[in-house]
Specification:
six-stranded mixed sheet, two-stranded antiparallel sheet, 3 helices
Amino acid sequence: MKQSAGILLFKRVTKKIVVLLVHPGGPFWKNKDLGSWSIPKGEFTDEESAPEAARREFKEETGFAITEKEKMLPLTMVIQKSGKLIYAWAVEKDIDTTAIKSNHFEIEWPPKSGQLKSFPEIDKAEWFSLEEAMQKINSSQAAFITELQQLLS
């Protein structure tokens, strides 16, 4: 069974909580918005612990590191419609979304053209209020935001 691990970054702005979500790069996601955003996350195998994978994926997708000194609050694992298990941790930290540097992937584009093109795994990252984030995030990951709100209240 496939499994991913990720970080739900949050910060406090004028007594309100905002969360960082990322938008997937590539032509499939180009014009999609509501329900297409995610926490920075990625797949891992049993050769790596889920917290290690979450930190690695966050760095790969944003260019920012989550160190072992930073407190990671475990969130309840969710199962996406595809059956993939998603493990997540909430971390309080501020980053500059204009400085995001994502890794890239290659796909054949346009389809059946024989041409490989490179796209960023993440094309943008933004801070959202909890209410906005609930509209933007992939519905199977919305439970992470709900749980974070409960943990912090």
